[in-house]
Every structure is written in structure tokens, then in C-alpha cells.
Amino acid sequence: MGAGALSTAIVRAPVPRRRAEGNAFVLPAAGLLLLLTLFPFLFTLALTFSRVSLVGGLNLSFAGLGNWHRLLTDSRFWTSLGNTVVIVVGAVSLEVLLGFGLALLLYRPLRGGAFFRVLFIVPMALTPIAVGYMWRMLLNETIGPFNALLQAAGLPPLGWVSGDALPLLSMILVDTWQWTPFVFVLCLAGLQALPEELWEAAQLDGASGGQILRYLILPLMVPTLLTASFLRAVEAFKIVDVIFIITGGGPGTRTESLTLHAYYRGLHAFDLAYGATIAFALFLLVLLSSLVFLRLTRRLRATEVWA
Amino acid sequence: MRRRPPIVAYILLGMWSMVVFFPLYWLVTASFKDALAVHQGPKFLPWVDFRPTLDAWRNLLRGVERETVWGPLLNSLVVGSSSSLLAMVLGASAAYGLARLPVRLGPMANEDMLFWIVSQRIMPPIVTALALFLMLRTVGLLDTRTGLVLVYVAFNLPLATWLMHNFFRQIPPSLEEAALVDGAGRARVLWHVVLPVSTPGLVATFLFCFLFAWNEFLFALILTFNRARTLPILIAAQHTQRGIEWWSLSAMSLITLAPVVLITLLLQGYLVGRVLGGGER
Description:
The complex is a heterodimer of chains A (307) and B (281). Chain A is mainly α and 307 residues long. Helix content of chain A is 74%, strand content 3%. Chain A has helices at residues 2-9, 15-47, 66-72, 75-106, 113-125, 128-139, 145-152, 166-193, 197-204, 209-236, 241-246, 258-268, 272-303, and strands at 50-53, 59-62. A two-stranded antiparallel ribbon of chain A has the order 1-2. In chain A, a hairpin with a 5-residue loop joins strand 1 and strand 2 (59-62). The longest helix of chain A is centred in the N-terminal third of the chain and has 33 residues, at 15-47. Chain A is globular. The two termini of chain A are 33 Å apart. By secondary structure, chain B is mostly helical. Chain B is 75% helix and 1% strand. In chain B, strands 1-2 form a two-stranded antiparallel sheet. In chain B, strand 1 (104-105) and strand 2 (108-109) form a beta hairpin. Chain B is globular and about 75 Å long. At the A-B interface, helix 1, helix 2, helix 4, helix 5 and helix 6 of A face helix 1, helix 4, strand 1, helix 5 and helix 6 of B.
């Protein structure tokens, strides 16, 4: 839109020519995305209604709703769906809580603040596979440090990666360790952008720290917190690397995520059509969650229940 | 401003610092342990409860494992840098067109086009990965660097376009207007006027793309197995070969992590300042 105003006032090239120019700048990127994102996406959708054979080249035959029917009655699918949702909800809640808390401690000048800020950012840049391996060592129940420390404190060792519910919690903790920094960075930027005068005035009025946080900072930070939760949730739905390394989805299928399940079905059992169906279900889940989330936040903002 | 006694703040910050620091400490010390120090139960302090050794590092850098690590390391470097360079160029080009010129492709004009490109980042990789496996297999690009580079360019394009779009929006159009009025063509303006002031944005975009390509796992897992496999795949493959050699895997992990830590230090000012602060929404 800025381009439109600028063009008529100053650059007098006719619109069709300028549009051709504009299109030329965008076409290479758009073309590549059509070829390597949109086409494979539609291909996956087609696979979900197909039988695939790789004998003598790629052969697809129509299979109707067979894959989808199988999906709905596959208990392992529902397990991995449940695991994924639990990880998303658990990890994102923890990350938002911790990230916001840490940002509150560090958004104002503080001696040594720069050091903490850099240190706290580091985990999110680290290669997830290396992080996964690192945690596999830490969570190891015989040679890892956690159980040793528990026993030194006179407590029973825990089944970090072999118990019933604990392995899934371990995955949540690993995700929280790596991705709290992301929320921290967004909140830090959000807090630093808030106008200074606001709480100077509030303070003159005699508001306490708690009141300022509850009635000033929190309402103003709602958009940032919502954006952070949304972006983190979208990423957390894709979780696979750390699980692949730490538990491989086990014990049994107790930590298997949707992506991992789709990978096992698609490329270990080599049932590409069914793997594609699981993957597409994940896509629908992400899409649905995004829409619900956007609808919900719009209503929240409209009614200002937070303020 | 309410002055909470800063001692409380420092205690909390110290606690989280421990949470961040201890796992990394464990990884670093493990790379200086031998089989005995690993398997006799956890050892915390070098020289106190285990004798540090350079064996793992020597094996990896000069010894038998050198060949194993060298290939994937080279693949990671080549695939990471060339895909990031391409994503940066294509992303910057698209972002410039969208920020400064009218665009219409099919039913989509500027805003829709930008939204479409950026929203591709939301798609879970597994949704396209299985189809890409079949596509690359058909054209003979499975397990090649070229195939992986192409996929990573597409994977990073949304991010690159978004970052560069934010960047171009912050450059005052008056800079280019003067040159355009003087009769310079769009390409010359871009080359001589816009790019010189965009270097920080381009560098940051390249580094972010490199970070994601370097760290990427799922596409590499599905699209490479041998010749073109990257460092994360090498690490992931270790425990299937011979029992886990924790010390050597720790050293391998640290080699993988060294460049990303470096990049983070380069980018941290950017992260906490302009890109995320200014670019959001």
C-alpha cells in the first residue's frame, strides 16, 4: 500500500509494467514453494486415498476411504494423538509461565543482566538431536546424574524413561528446557516496548508491585503472550527429534508423537499411504487448533476480559 | 519503580542459570570421560571423581572416527550454507517485490501473497516429507546434497521472506525514490541503493536460515541415508551400530553445537532487539 502512494506521486511508470516488475521479483520464490511445498502437500492428500506400490516405479491405485477408516480405528494413532496434545499443552504452558517470569526479572536494567539474557537464549539455538542425546544421558536411569542425586538425598530412583506417565513428562521437560528461551525473547521484547511513563504514574498513585503487574503489565502483555503461545504450540505439534533420540517413542508407544508414528508407518513399515494419512491428520489438527485459537483470541481481545 | 529486593531476583536467576547450565556441563564433561568413568555410575567433577581424558576427541579428530565424522560435517556445511544463501536471495527478492511494488499472481495480491508464503512455515514437515521422498526418488535426487538443498530452501523461504520484508519496510522509500526519479532502473536501484543498506538484514537472515538448516532433522532423516547425510543423522545413527559410546557421541554433539553457539552469540543482539521486537504482527 505504501508502494501504491509512492508510485503515483513519484514513479510514473504505468501500473501494468510495475506489476510485471513486482511479479518478477516474487515469482522465483513462489514457484519454488509451489513445487516443493504445495505440490507435495496435495500429493500427500492424494496418497491418503491411495494404495502405493514401488515395484517397477511408483504406482498409485485408488483406495477410497480405506486409509482414513483404518486411521479412526487404529488405537496407536489415538495414543500418539493424545501424547502429542499432552506435550503441546504441558510444554507450552510451562514455557509461557517460565519465559514470562524470567523476562519480568530481566527487562529492566540489572547488574549482570546482559550475561543472563545471553545464557538464557542459548538452548533454543542448539541442535535438537544433540539436545536429545544430552538428555538421554541425563535421564539414563543407571548412569545418569538425576537418579544418583535422588538416591544421595535418600529418595527412590525414578523411571524417567521407563515409567508409566513419567516418560511423557520427561519429554515435556526437555521441550521446556529448549524452548522457554523463545517465549523469554518475545516477552522481553514486548516488555521493553511498553511505555515507561505508565508505571511511573501508577507508582505515584501508590500502586504496589503486585498491582502494577496484575493491572498494568499483564493486560498490556496479553497480545504478546498469546502470540508466543500460538507460535510455540504450532512448533510443539511437530515434535519428533528429541523423542526419536531419547525414547524412540517408548516404552511401548507411551511417548510416540504423531510425526514419529507417521514416520514409523511410512518409512519403517513402508506403508507410505497410511503414513501420509497420519501426517495429514496432524496437519488437520494444527489447522483446527490455529483456527480455534485465532477465533478465541479475537473474542478475548474484543471483550477485554483481561483489562 | 518498585524495588523488589534484587537478592530475590538474583536467586531466581541463579536457579534458572543452573537449569540451563548443568545439562551442558554434563555433555562437556562426558566428552572427557572414558568407558570406566561413564559406566561406574555418574561422575560429576573432573580430577576429583574421574580422570579426564582426551581419548574421545583424539579419536574423532585424528583417529579412526575421523572419516566417519568428516563426510557428514562437510555435508552439513555445504547444504547449510548453500541452501541459506539461496533462501536469502530468493526471500530478499520476493520481500522486495512485495514491499515496494504491486504484485498479483493468480488471485493473490501483495498482502495475501506475503501471508501465503509466511504461513507455509506452519505446515508440519512430515506432511510434505513423505511426498518429497517419493518425488526425489522419482527424479533420482534421494540421498544427494542437491535434493536436500532444494528442500531446505523451500523450508527456509517463509522465514527469509518474512525477515527481509520487515527489514525493507524499515528502510525509508525516499532513498530509492530519488534514484528512480533520476531515471535509474529498478534493478540498478536495488543493487546500488537498497542492498548496501540491507547488509545487516541479509546477514541476519542468512544466519537464521543456516541455524535451521544445520539443526534440521526430519527431512534429512527421510531424504538422506548415506552419502548426503548430515551431522544430526550421524548422531542419531550411532546407537544402532555398536552400544552407545557416550564419550564419543558427546564430542560429536559438541562439534555439532559449536557453530550454532557461535551464531547465537552473533545474533543475540538482533534477537533481543530488532527482528522480533519490531517485526511482530
